[in-house]
Amino acid sequence: MTDRLTKWFKHNLDNLVSVQNTTISQTSLVANLWSGVRVRVYLIDQPLKTRVIKKALQDATNIGVGSMFIVSSTLVPDEGEQTVPEEWLQAIHAITGEQLYTYRIDRGHIRLNQVHFEPLSGLGKWEIQHGKAFIPNRLRFYTLSVKPRYIRGTWLVSDFDSPAFWKENDYRRHRERKRQQRRRSTGNTRWQDWSTFRTWSNNQQGSGAGNGNVPGASPLKSFLDECYMQLGITSDAGQTEVKAAYRKLVREVHPDVSELPKDEAEVRFRVINEAYQYIKSANNW
Fold first, then answer.
1. DSSP for 6-61?
2. At 105, which helix (H) or strand (E)?
3. Contacts by 27-31 with C-beta closer than 8 Å and gap 24+?
4. N or C: which end of the chain has fewer CB within 10 A?
5. pLDDT digits 0-9 by tens, 174-190
6. So where are the chain's domains?
């Protein structure tokens, strides 16, 4: 992984609304969210062993840190291909809401894409579906229980809170057109996106990429306690009390009505929302 690519991702992660700042460690990018939680973002440019992914998930979850994997597009099967993806790709697909996040560099820009593996009934294979390139807005942090045996467990994970493109009518129509085209042609179908490319910014000025290791993360309970503190309640509060505290604070700090300066109100509003979402995920509400 090149330093340029890593710094590029750092700069753009720093610009997400839920991210306070991002640091660079030896193995990943670490995004510190406004809610106080951390997410490790791994940029994958070569095939991995499934056990390596599971070990990374275990280590991060044990200390209350989320994980996200973004894979080079060169490692993913072609659009429309009917195949059995490698197990490690299936594992990442399972822990990111039945999708892979992929990246590629095109004429100086990072392009992010989503890839979905659609099971083909009775064939034991999957059809590879590529969504449109997109620009993320936020990192979402939550607990996920995964059933496939090779990655089974309950993990702290993160995603870009992006919609399931393979369920959208526009994509379904696009996919049918592509199928018809492939029937008429034997040409290369590599990386056939279905809408105009969108990219993250390539402006590196003021990105402030750091190089130090991340300080030791707090245990999960510390993150959870901090979220309760953000809502002004104790960690033994029940679901009704948590919801009431959240609604009260949201009415007070919403940027449209708060007496705080607008920038401060927006930050406080985001922090409260992230804290509430984390408490709900931790308690399976």
1. HHHHHHHHHTSTTEEEEEE-SS-EEEEETTS-EEEEEEE-S---HHHHHHHHHHHH
2. strand 100-106
3. 30/65, 30/214, 31/139, 31/158
4. C
5. 767 766 666 666 544 44
6. 3-184, 220-283
